[in-house]
From TrEMBL:
Keyword field contains Coiled coil: yes
InterPro entries in the record: DUF5615
Coiled coil, from the record: 92-119
Name of this protein: DUF5615 domain-containing protein
Domain (DUF5615) ranges: 1-62
Alphabetized UniProt keyword annotations: Coiled coil
Protein's organism: Rhodovibrio sodomensis
Length: 137
């Protein structure tokens, strides 16, 4: 798997992914900062990136109906989407904590995330929940 980290997340996530043995880069490292979601989706799909974002709605659509809208709504096949759902006033530490949970889930899957979404959510009571589901469904 190779990962592309969205510009809304810390570049420190790239370092952690590389330490774990994955190929990873950040949107800013590709000089794609400020690109529209649609333009970024073309890059993600063409290069088979597993995309990591903090903007779940923009890419998977509404939580209740994933795939009904958002960047991945028209994708027939993709390398996977990881949504780190956290408060907007989060810290790099929180992002790294959620990434650790995502890496743990990926290890349990013993494969890849082709046509799947991995959502890692930090709840108000500080518990972390991970959910994996297919997209397209």
């Amino acid at each position: 798997m190779k990962f592309l980290v969205d510009e809304c997340l810390s570049p420190a996530l790239v370092n952690r992914l590389q330490t774990a043995g994955y190929q990873a880069t950040h949107v800013t490292h590709l000089n794609k900062s400020g690109w529209s979601d649609q333009a970024l989706m073309a890059v993600i799909l063409d290069a088979d990136w597993t995309f990591i974002t903090g903007n779940a709605f923009d890419f998977r659509g509404p939580a209740g109906t994933p795939g009904s809208s958002g960047g991945y709504s028209g994708a027939k096949i993709h390398a996977g989407l990881i949504c780190l759902n956290r408060p907007y006033n989060d810290s790099r530490r929180i992002q790294l904590e959620l990434l650790e949970e995502a890496l743990s889930e990926i290890n349990e899957l013993e494969g890849d995330l082709v046509n799947q979404v991995l959502e890692v959510t930090l709840h108000d009571d500080d518990t972390i929940e991970a959910t994996v589901y297919g997209l397209p469904t």
